[in-house]
Amino acid sequence: MSLFALTGAVLAQVPDWPDEEREGVVVNYTEAKVGRFTLPDPLRLNDGRPVTDAETWFAQRRPEILRLFETHQFGKAPAAPDGITFDVTDAGTPAFDGKALRRQVTVYLSGSKNGPAMDLLIYLPAAARGPVPLLLHVGFTANNTLVRDPGVKRGAIWNRDGVREPAPDSSRFGQLRVLPFVEAGIGVATVYYGDIEPDFAAGLPHGIRQTFLRPGEQLAPDAWGAIAAWAWGLSRAMDYVETDAGIDAERVALIGVSRLGKTVLWTAAQDPRFAAVIASCSGEGGAALSRRNYGETIKLITLPQRFGYQFAGNYARYGDDPGQSPVDAHMLVSLVAPRPVLLQTGTTDKWSDPVGEFEAAVAAEPVFELLGEKGLGTTTMPPAQTPIFHTIGYYMHEGGHGTQPDDWDQYLAFLQQHLLRD
To answer: What's the CA gap between 72 and 107, in Å, rounded?
Structure first.
């Protein structure tokens, strides 16, 4: 499938910047130097036959693409162990001036209370008359730092020296916007990714992946990296959600930023129980096309001194030639189909390549259309602050990497459109 032609209107949304050098690698920020490339066709089987109906997509092509991503990018995660248990330590305390009910749950990830455990914080609308949809957030810090609620259990975080320590009272990552969602009839939940797996190269002995290794065993080249471990943990949060009568488990959306944007895309790709996904600035390894020579690349992200531990070892093989990879970001987005997916980017977040994310969304559109859903419906990139909210959504704020306060209004509008029922 040849990449569609970009128009001047597309390129004008993200002006060129001078190149820079990182880790001895020249990073391109000029569209004219992106280069020509061809994307793998998500609607063509490995044996070359076209996919022309939904049955073939679900029975054959989708499993093929999942296996390719497992083998070549994220790694293969194990099934959940028997005996996953939950301790509900806070069953429904009024919060946010009585507008929400707070739940706090400890999820024991290994089936043993001596193994890794994840704290799940949930707020549900106090006025709800039945099960409500839920936005499940995966965050960079402990739950108590993300909300202004003194009743939340103080968690523990990994510091920059790789030591677990009590979480602070506030966070540089900002606050979760709980109240607008609760008032709209949507619950909000969050987990700290470090409860599942630490986010540093030497973190393997301290996370969930270690519990599945035999003594002395090393990770295979196609074994799960940290992103796959975080995704695995989010599926364990869903295991709890399915037991909670206050939550409609068929209307649970995921949200994550940066590497956690990659995580929520991979989670939704593997676990069809999630009804929608919002990926903020997920970039390389997420929603940005790897075949574009722009911003962060496979070569940079997989360097041992950077983030190679987040992926399967095989991913680094494509650093010098991403075109040799059997997958690219549009195929990851297509795995979410026919469920809603919103890609949020920023005009100055060139490292994460907002144009590359838009192109991936356009290239995933044929899969959504095959399944009866609407893609972006345009090959012209919208200006900043102009959302597209079809089944594939795209929104670019004015600014840089991550989530800005006003982005939460867009997230809420997207979820209201796709998850709320009469």
So the answer is: 30
Question: CA 384, CA 16: separation in Å to the nearest integer?
Answer: 16
- In this prediction, residue 422 carries a pLDDT of 58
pLDDT (0 to 100) of residue 11: 54
User: What tokens were used for 337?
Assistant: 């189909």
Tokens 């597309």 -> residue: 10
Q: Is 110 a catalytic residue?
A: no
Backbone φ, ψ for residue 245 (5° rounding): -65, -15
Taking the C-alpha atoms of residue 160 and residue 171, their distance in angstroms, rounded to an integer, is 15
3-class SS of residue 196: coil
| Of the candidates 155, 170, 231, 152, the residue with the CA atom closest to the CA atom of residue 197 | 231
**Residue 113 scores a pLDDT above 90:** no
How many alpha carbons fall within 13 Å on the CB side of residue 26? Answer: 7
The CA distances from residue 170 to 150, 204, 281, in Å, are 11, 27, 23
The one-letter amino acid code at 72 reads H
C-beta neighbour count of 8 within 10 angstroms: 7
The two structure tokens encoding residue 64:
């093929």
Q: Average pLDDT of 374-399?
A: 97
**Prediction pTM value:** 0.96
Distance CA 223, CA 204 (A): 12
Report the C-alpha gap between 96 and 409 in whole angstroms.
19
Nearest by Cα to 144 from 135, 154, 134: 154
Residues with Cβ < 8 Å from 8, sequence gap 6 or more? none
Instruction: Point out which residues pair with 246 in neighbouring strands.
Output: none
Q: How far apart are CA 150 and CA 147, in angstroms?
A: 9
| Catalytic one of 110, 258, 325, 334 | 258
Cβ partners under 8 Å of residue 58, min gap 6: none
H/E element, 156: strand 156-158
What is the spatial distance between Cα 157 and Cα 164, in angstroms, rounded to a whole number?
5
Residue that has been written with the tokens 């301790």 in this structure = 87
Q: State percent of the chain over pLDDT 70.
A: 97
Distance between CA atoms of 53 and 30, rounded to whole angstroms?
Answer: 39
CB 265, CB 254: distance < 8 Å: no
Q: Exposed, middle or buried, 263 (CB in 10 Å: 0-12/13-18/19+)?
A: buried
Look up 390 and say whether it is catalytic. no
The pLDDT assigned to 9 comes to 44
Among residues 171, 206, 235, 401, which one is catalytic? 401
Q: At what angle do helices 226-241 and 259-270 cross, to 10 degrees?
A: 60
The share of the chain scoring above pLDDT 90, in percent, equals 91
